[in-house]
């Protein structure tokens, strides 16, 4: 269970997301299955018509977020065609190998003690995760997996 | 055409507050302002850990560019500060 502070910060961030200029590009909803989770309908600036449903869950709000992409039809988190091809994303493994996700640090435990890859101390975990994801989508997006 | 000063606003992705200099010199380069910005956010660069400015999502690699050049004649310049990502 999250601490009271984590829950408070999560709610505060969720309520104030609209203050971010990038938020106009997202549809963010609470993930009701976990205490600290959201889904975000996002797209790359390179292909605005191709929408992806990202699920972000924080087992610990100040640690890397778990990132999965869900099928917009079925909600499945094991559908590779729900995934964008972006650097570090592994659609057929349903995970991401990057230094801002839980899955990345699970695949590379040594990153936690690495000067270059250790997760930073952050004050706004939701903002950080969404902006990082959006930035990666905009800069390194190729196409939907399987197309 | 640079104005003499501008509002320089930097957002670090995970931080609550922005770095704001309401009277930044338009002729200052990114290399000149970067140490102040890093210090504000309590960050330290090392050979392994590098932070870059980005504008509208695009990383800026040329640190010799001035704030005025980036502002394109406007009186306010907004940038992001992001750390280099590692991928497996």
Report on the architecture of this protein.
The complex is a heterodimer of chains A (147) and B (88). Chain A has 147 residues and is of the alpha+beta class. Chain A has one domain (4-140): Ubiquitin Conjugating Enzyme, CATH 3.10.110. Helices cover 24% and strands 22% of the residues of chain A. Chain A has a four-stranded antiparallel sheet with strand order 1-2-3-4, covered by helices on one side. Chain A has a two-stranded antiparallel sheet with strand order 5-6. The radius of gyration of chain A is 15 Å and the shape is globular. Chain B has one domain (5-83): Phosphatidylinositol 3-kinase Catalytic Subunit, Chain A, domain 1 (Ubiquitin-like (UB roll), Roll), CATH 3.10.20.90. Chain B is 18% helix and 35% strand. In chain B, strands 2-1-5-3-4 form a five-stranded mixed sheet. Chain B is globular and about 45 Å long. The chains are: A alpha+beta (147), B alpha+beta (88). At the A-B interface, helix 3 of A face strand 5 of B.
Task: Produce a short descriptive summary.
The complex is a heterodimer of chains A (147) and B (88). Chain A has 147 residues and is an alpha+beta fold.
H/E series of chain A: HEEEEEEHH
Low-confidence stretches of chain B: none
How large is the radius of gyration of chain A? 15 Å
- The N- to C-terminal Cα distance of chain A equals 40 Å
* CATH H-level homologous superfamily name of chain A: Ubiquitin Conjugating Enzyme
Mean pLDDT of chain A: 96
Highest CATH level, the class of chain A: Alpha Beta
Radius of gyration computed on alpha carbons of chain B: 13 Å
- In N-to-C order, the SSE pattern of chain B is EEHEEHE
Task: Quickly count the domains of chain B.
Answer: 1
Structural class of chain A: alpha+beta
Query: How many individual domains of chain A?
Result: 1
Low-confidence stretches of chain A are none
Derived from helix and strand composition plus strand pairing, the structural class of chain B reads: alpha+beta
**CATH topology description of chain B:** Ubiquitin-like (UB roll)
Could you tell me which chain pair has the largest interface and how many residues each side has? A-B, 30 and 19 residues
Could you name the CATH class of chain B? Answer: Alpha Beta
Q: What strand order characterises the main sheet of chain B?
A: 2-1-5-3-4
- Main sheet specs of chain A: 4 strands, antiparallel
CATH architecture verdict of chain B: Roll
